[in-house]
Amino acid sequence: MEWPNHGGQPETMRQLFKMEKDREILDFSANINPLGPPSWLKETLRNHYDTITYYPDPTYLSSSVSVANYEGIDAGQVLVTNGGAEAIFLVAKYFEKGKALIVHPTFMEYERACQHYHIDVEDVFYEPKNGFQLPLTSIREKLTKTDVIFLCRPNNPTGTIVKEEDLRLLLEEGEKTGTTIVVDEAFVDFLPSSIPSLVKWLRTYSNLILLRSLTKMYTIPGLRIGYMMANEPIINALKDEQIPWSVNSLAAALVPKLLEDTSFVEKTKGWLKEQSQYVFRSLTDLDFHIYPSSVNFYILQDKKKNTNELFQFLLRHGILTRHTHNFKGLNGEFIRIAIRSKEENEQLISVLKKWRNES
Ligand SMILES: Cc1ncc(COP(=O)(O)O)c(C=O)c1O
Questions:
Q1: Quick check: bond before 196 cis, omega within 30?
Q2: Closest approach atom of ligand 1 to CA 221
Q3: For residues 286 and 349, what is the distance between their CA atoms, to the nearest angstrom?
């Protein structure tokens, strides 16, 4: 069977599993904030309707300045992109024909982008027995022949977080070996405030590139907004590679407004804390194997029965989760599940109870 590459495709799954057209599907496969978009967004989009009749400012100055102010860096260290996805491909272009390390299981677009730009990729794997910690020794051994390392923090799909001290060590050694560390922080906004972004390190390490997405937190994957942060020479080089006007004018106009809405982010963190406590407690009571995640998704394995069968059981009961067949190192042995609204999470737990009772 040809599994879809990404989550959030209920219609494709409906067809793949030959489900009736009117069968309702709750989508736990996409890791998007269920609280969004923010309530003011529709009206603001309407108010900015006229901007679509003009080309956007090709330098995206106003959005870059708002990102810089929000992050406490210079506008020259920011590049606004058409979602985190464009940022990933731009970074790969920067290392065209070079050598990369990708730490798996992780978001598959790093690999696709590297293939696209003829980058020679070596795979390394997080250590599941150690809660998906970084395979530090094996990475350090490879540094001298590595131009770039792709890391996702918090990591998709595991929801785990590479330790700061491990990263610091890699950045310091990477400065000597000419290795850049790309850290995709697409889900960083979901973390508790006690685990901050690495943005403060941009001042210290010129070999650090950070990637961000606004589509997850604000529930706007269709609008496409992200940005990257790095030292000015890297940002300038990447600007030259970016397709002109790649961020549309509505998306660009929204950047300052989204970043100003810190109360929406706080509300999201409150929901996440409450709901993840409920979900993780219930799953542990039901004897499922889960890894501690600090973000809005987690991976789960059934210790007692085949997880693939569980995936299909959930789907038959109208719950779509994310298969892991195309995550290297997971190979379909887990499913990734999003944390959704209270009602949806309760529905998930009740179907999982049914699965347990029928097992
Ligand atoms: C880790 C990670 N980075 C980047 C992206 C791309 O996000 P977007 O292009 O919507 O900003 C995704 C999307 O799923 C992701 O999971």
A1: no
A2: 10
A3: 9
Whole-angstrom Cα distance, residue 297 to residue 311?
A: 16
Q: Ligand 1 centroid to 216 CA: how many Å?
A: 8
| CA–CA separation, 183 and 326 (whole Å) | 21
- Give the tens place of pLDDT for each residue, 179-235: 999 999 999 999 999 999 999 999 999 999 999 999 999 999 999 999 999 999 999
| Pocket lining: 215 vs ligand 1, CB cutoff 6 Å | yes
Buried b (16+ CB within 10 A) or exposed e, 177-188: eebbbbbbbbbb
* Count, residues in the chain: 359
Ligand 1 centroid distance, CA of 356 (Å): 33
CA-closest residue to ligand 1 atom 2: 186
| pLDDT tens-digit series, residues 147-173 | 999 999 999 999 999 999 999 999 999
Query: How would you classify the pairing of strands 120-125 and 99-104?
Result: parallel
**Can you tell me the mean pLDDT for 337-355?**
97
Percent of the chain with pLDDT over 90: 89
Q: What is the largest CA-CA distance in the chain?
A: 60
Beta carbons of 60 and 247 less than 8 angstroms apart: yes
Q: Kindly list the structural domains of the chain, giving each domain's residue range(s) and its CATH number in brackets, ordered by start.
A: 10-30+263-358 (3.90.1150.10), 55-260 (3.40.640.10)
Does the CB atom of residue 156 touch ligand 1 within 6 A? Answer: yes
